């Protein structure tokens, strides 16, 4: 898996660098942010509730023709899931949802096709680097964090979605992110579970 991630990163860097040398005046850079509706999916995951979090980062679009571009991004993404709890039956004695917080730095490289002026379809691979994993049983307070190390440090996934960009540079996006590689480490307790990240992202941004 690490060799696959490295190969994708090297290939993407080479493509962007080659086109940047030829058409540097056409490359657009921007910023973006928005809301995440994250959960886990798979044969070995029970009934969980979507965790609402956010994503934010940087965008670069490299055009190859009037309709086709490559778009790369580097961003923070808050993921995981929620478990509803109640102080009546919860030994932690709180009425908040318990959050499994799984946060990443994501690097998607997407093909971008303009269907009509302003409206585009995006799809491509993504690598993600885990930066935080914890259970928070008091998500509305500063306390309650319990650090974990059950998830893999790297994830390979796919991304697909739509974007609409105005002439002013402002844009809106909607996309779905699915983790292809397994999420959890193999262990004597968990075995080799089939669990994957599943995230819907809605965002806005601006191209300079």
From TrEMBL:
Coiled-coil regions in this chain? Answer: none
Q: Where is the Outer membrane protein beta-barrel domain?
A: 20-184
Does the keyword Iron belong to this entry? no
Q: Which InterPro entries match?
A: Beta-barrel_OMP_2, OMP/PagP_B-barrel
List UniProt keywords, sorted A-Z: Signal
Q: Which residues form the signal peptide?
A: 1-22
Protein name in UniProt? Porin family protein
